[in-house]
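Hi P.,

Sorry for the delay on this. The queue was packed all week, but I finally got your sequence through. Input first:
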Amino acid sequence: MNKKIRDNNTSIEELMQQKSGRAILVAVDLRPSNSDQVERSLDELEDLAKTNGFTVVDRIVQKLDKIDRNTFVGSGKLDDIVERAEEIGADFLIFNGELSPAQTRGITQATDLKVSDRVSVILSIFADHARTDEGKIQVELAYLRYRLTQLVGRGAELSRLGGGIGTRGPGETVLEQDRRAIRKRMGVLRRELKRMEDRRERSRSLRDRRHVMTAAIVGYTNAGKSTLLNKLCDETLDAGDRLFMTLDPTARRLDIQEGLSLVLVDTVGFIRDLPVFLYQAFRATFEEAASADLILLVTDISDPDAAMHIEVVQKQLNELDAGSIPVLYLLNKVDRVSHESLHDVMTMLRNEKASHILQVSAKTGEGLDQLLSSLARFVEDTLLEYRAVIPYKEAGLVAHAREYGTVDDVKYENDVIILEGKIRKNEVRPLMPWIVHAP
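Then the structure:
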């Protein structure tokens, strides 16, 4: 990484340029050792790195009692890693964690290799995949929060450049200037983001007032959420075997059958150890799930860590106060199912109703008919079956009945309209005086 980036003055544009090179992944296995977990974490880091454009040429794990505060892996091991990088022509070291300013300094003082960490890679992917103005603002806000923590970490070092007690050295002045500039820019971004969030909230409120049923598609990143929405709604949203393809919530109407529909909302993928500043920047986007009537929790059942992915999503849903919303568990990519993963997931979900767990393939369409039937039952459970005899002066109720339910039969008699069908229970009040039969 060049000197400017090492000094944590990276712009978003520079962050997005950290997308090529031969990289070695570096991790620490803390004692007591859990090698399988470390390897799976490195698998995820490798997916992140490849999504960001890197070619991963080696993976190195150092066993330690605790992470070295100056070089992450210890100075001796770092020398070995640098030697290995020279042997295989690697030019990037990507550390499986968040490097502190002190660790970044220690590593870059020992080598001219470019240095990155898990957080920077995720930030770069977010910067690359942001499409809307809101998404771009959220990414920049997250990046500035990250930079601010890095500046705070460098405060003691910079203040030592001062002349003595009670004086303001040039380093401290630069630090304070950087802090003020970052906080000022963050204030501008927050205000703009608030305006955008208010617009989205008004859209949600409109759906609420009309009692439009909403199902939020949530899950670990790369679980196949966008592919599922595309398949169900015949859409062409960006989707593929890459992480964090969706950063902006996307709502689409799904007509299940005549008179039964709901709105599907695609959301940002979750990931373990999501950096706090990223979670804070995208919290309003995540909260789309908290306002839904139903959650479709999509899991890649071909992934060895599928059960852990569900745990991560459930934990973050609980943090959003969305833990009480009904859930359909969609075990996706069943065309590539790992039977070990399936066993782990079914053991984990053993207390859930079998009807709430569906095996599907968003790619091939397998199991989607069963999913549509489950969604239809969910919507129907919110409906009340009725037979109403309505005077012609109340004929406008026919349109109300069609908007908020299904009309199975309508007869225009001499003096009255006989209406039969189902209507959402929370919209039945206008019909109540004329209902002659309801279960």
